[in-house]
Amino acid sequence: MKLKFSKMHGLGNDFMVVDGVRQSVSLSTEQIRLLGNRQLGIGFDQLLLVEAPREAGHDFRYRIFNNDGGEVEQCGNGARCFAKFVRDERLTDKSRISVETARGVISPEYLGDGQVRVDMGVPRFAPADLPFLADAEALTYALPVAGGDVEIGIASMGNPHAVQLVDDVDAAPVAEIGPLIENHPAFPQRVNAGFMQILNRGEIRLRVYERGAGETLACGTGACAAAVCGIRQGLLDARVIVRARGGDILIEWAGEGRPVIMTGPAVTVFRGEIEL
């Protein structure tokens, strides 16, 4: 099988994007792992598969696979790259598209100059929505990790996130604590672990240990989750610049029951073809 693809990134969170509309694509878990290997394959944090929609009224279906081969529900940086990809490949001439995901519909809008705005939907905070094992919903929870408790906020952006405050994101033990939170038994389907440093009410720094991918240079849904957790806790205003190691992203959230709006860049690195 010969597979045409684009290599893209959003703030350094990198993707192999595959057109499953004009070419037949059937990839095994082992093939995805090989493609994701940075020495033996293309190398990526996630593989994004563009498909035709399942329901009328939508433009595309969006599937996401981590480099460990596992399929996940949502990816914010990937959504921006998705929107640029379908425009660049002339799969649509629309600026704003409706895209099916495993956890609902998102609406990316290509703004030009590589910038994409995405309506990421309404965040959910009930423990059952992640899922997270807790007796009742709260703003924060004490999570026992490595002999102590870590205070976390939780949010689902179509995928699960646990966000903790840290004094200095550079000094945060992301490599050590990240996998312990990701695989904590309180999260039966694992979780993305965010480490947030608040600079002021409109600006944070963030690192995310992503479920199934490890730490990435940026995480779009992680940026959304961190911002909304901070806003709910009264620590942040409704418009937040999130500074990740790969660059900056703008998150806007008007409060409970309202969608999260994410705006940031999408970049095409190269196009290619690989034989499997």
TrEMBL record:
GO terms for cellular component: cytosol. One of its GO terms (molecular function) is diaminopimelate epimerase activity. It catalyses: (2S,6S)-2,6-diaminopimelate = meso-2,6-diaminopimelate. It holds the Pfam family DAP_epimerase. It is found in: Cytoplasm. Pathway: Amino-acid biosynthesis; L-lysine biosynthesis via DAP pathway; DL-2,6-diaminopimelate from LL-2,6-diaminopimelate: step 1/1. One of its GO terms (biological process) is lysine biosynthetic process via diaminopimelate. Keywords: Amino-acid biosynthesis, Cytoplasm, Isomerase, Lysine biosynthesis. The keyword Isomerase applies. Substrate binds at residues 13, 46, 66, 76-77, 159, 192, 210-211, 220-221. The record marks 161, 210 as: Could be important to modulate the pK values of the two catalytic cysteine residues. InterPro entries: DAP_epimerase_AS (IPR018510), DAP_epimerase_DapF (IPR001653). The active site is at residues 75, 219. The keyword Amino-acid biosynthesis applies. Its EC number is 5.1.1.7. Homodimer. Belongs to the diaminopimelate epimerase family. Catalyzes the stereoinversion of LL-2,6-diaminopimelate (L,L-DAP) to meso-diaminopimelate (meso-DAP), a precursor of L-lysine and an essential component of the bacterial peptidoglycan. This is Diaminopimelate epimerase. It comes from Chromobacterium phragmitis.
